[in-house]
Structure formats: C-alpha cells, structure tokens
Amino acid sequence: MKSLPFVQQPQKSATRRCGTPASGVLELPVLGGLTVGESAVITDLLASEQSSFVAGARIADLIAKTEKISLAEAFSIIEAAVSGNPLEEEADAIRIRHAKQIEDVARIYATAGQRNMTATVTALIKCRLGMDEWTVEDTNQMHRALFNAIWELAQDEQAAENQPAAERPDEETLGKPPAANGKGKKPTGELLATT
Asked: Each residue of 68-82: pLDDT tens digit?
C-alpha cells in the first residue's frame, strides 16, 4: 500500500496466532477493523445469495394474510420462533399452524449465517495473508479449529470498529501550535515604548 501523508500515523498492527497444533497455526495481522478490501470481498462472495431477510419477509407476508394480522406481527412471530423465544398463547398457535414455513426460514437463517462466516474467513485469508487465489471451497476444506480461530479474529475486528473513537489528538500531540483563544493582546500595529 502506498503511504499516505498522515498527520498522525496509524497504530502499528499487532498479530494474532490462529489455530492449534492439530490444525496448524497461522499468524494474521490485527488491524482494529476490517479493511475496505476485506468488506468488498465479503460482499462479492455473498452477492449471489438469497437474502435471509427477504425469505423471512415472504413467509411473514404469507402468515399475515392467512392469519389476518399485520406483517410486523407475523415477522415478530417468526423471529421469536427462530430464536427460541417464548410466545404468547395466540402467537404460539400461529407458530404451530405455520411450523413448516417457519422451519424453512430457520434453515435459511442458519445457512446464511454459515455463508457469512465462510465468506468472512475467506476474505481475511485472501487479504491479510495475500492469498488472492484462495476460494470459499478452500475455506470449506479447513480444519474446524483453524476456521473458528480466524472467525473469532474477524468478530473481534468487527467489534473494534464499533468501539467509540478515541478522542481526537490535540495540537500538541500533532506538533502544531495551539489555536488562538482570543485571550491574548490583539496586535495594534503600534510599537510599545520601552524606556
């Protein structure tokens, strides 16, 4: 990467070892977030996949029309059922009547979650290890312990992106003179006599 004219240099990246003796150990840079390139790879790998939200919305629409309830209510029933949350008696009766469709949504959500994990691990390997030819199929052949360790790194990187930004550096830190605060003498253009 070409060097940018930073006023304050980025923090030096650390590294993390991922894996076990059985899976093999890789060392990946820890950058404090995903890079633009990694996000683009993930988006590209998931672009052709059906949205799990769209699938859930289709089933919610069917349930809403059949049960004569709002789309939001139907979607809430699906979400609660998929996540295993308890439902009120009437909502639970609706869940039971539409168990097959809700089960299909749960399967789609689980599959989408696994695809996202696989795309993310693939992106980190491609970008952080410089393995441009690495594919989803290669990731699918990885040892589970190595896969899980890289996925954990990705989750930590995404969580770091959501941390509040540190305070902006002040002028002293950046080596700039402090801004005028209006409390000093204003120049008048007159020389003061000193005798």
From this structure: 999 999 999 999 998
